[in-house]
Amino acid sequence: MTPIPNLNIVPFVSVDNMMKLVMRIGIERFLTELEAYIEEDFRRWEMFDKTPRVASHSPNGVIELMPTSDGTLYGFKYVNGHPYNAHTGRQTVTAFGVLADTASGYPMLITEMTILTALRTAATSAMAAKYLAPKGARTMAIIGNGAQSEFQALAFKAVLGIDKLRLYDIDPKATHKCAHNLAAYGFDIVQAKTPEEAVTGAQIVTTVTADKKNATILTDNMVGEGIHINAVGGDCPGKTELHRDIVLRSEIFVEYPPQTWIEGEIQQLPQTHPIHELWKVIAGNETGRSNDRQITLFDSVGFAIEDFSALRYLRDRLQGSGLYEELDLLADPDEPRDLFGMLLRSVKPNTDAA
């Protein structure tokens, strides 16, 4: 007989255990399986509660909460974005998340999500490219070679078969780091000296920079017909990576329009400009790439349903792994109404005094 789980004990996945789980499964397999979970949830997009992330901005960055529910499970992620943290040896993005049972309100899982966010962002990019990138694409340029770049490369390899990379970063050390980390994964890698050199010959261009300002990572003359742009770096008001003319020339696909109009590349455009919701393409309600000459743009800002999918995938993969700790997180009085009595009983009587 399977023992009834103690619902007051909540599994917690630490950074150490997350790394062990990813490496046990294998990075490319993890990304492929995670992509399938995200795609499954995009197909049932209409079932979810949806709201733009709740953001608290400061001069140094932003702290955000990203909640959603499918009616059975509830998930949220706490995430920050502080681009200047790198100057003090800290991560630009850190995160943790919670998955809960909507019937009881009890949390079912607490986990680190710094690593998991990098994986889900890459898996979502690759999922979008399945529907938007040119058929048979083998070469991708990655402009911005920081913490997200290797995950993007491996997701596109695992899901689309990309095996040629053209890397560029304003800091050559970041490009060397990325090339070194990916050296054993079967890529043909070019370390470009300029962004123009990086995009030459690429069918897919991924922009994934960290600076929280309006920037021009790609200029209009750098983008020819028939490519797919995976714009990952834009994720808050006032931060863009693409010249406005590129956005105007592209067929634009987004996650959740109320959030993307505020945070994405399309914040440069009037809200009357036509865009497409990616979930409708995945669900078969709209067409993705329609011809070989088209420029497609996935204006990715990250949305809570993707984190929900990642939490759901993680919960399923934890079964029998042993790669979690048990947190005594929830009070469990013998009588649910007697929480105060539980507190009193926590102190043993002093029997030594006599």
TrEMBL record:
One Pfam assignment: OCD_Mu_crystall
Entry keywords, A to Z: NAD
Superkingdom per UniProt: Bacteria
Keyword Transcription regulation: no
NAD in keyword set: yes
Family of the protein in this entry: Belongs to the ornithine cyclodeaminase/mu-crystallin family.
PANTHER family to which the protein is assigned, alphabetical: KETIMINE REDUCTASE MU-CRYSTALLIN
Name of the protein in its database record: Ornithine cyclodeaminase
Biological source species: Rhizobium setariae
Taxonomic placement: Bacteria, Pseudomonadati, Pseudomonadota, Alphaproteobacteria, Hyphomicrobiales
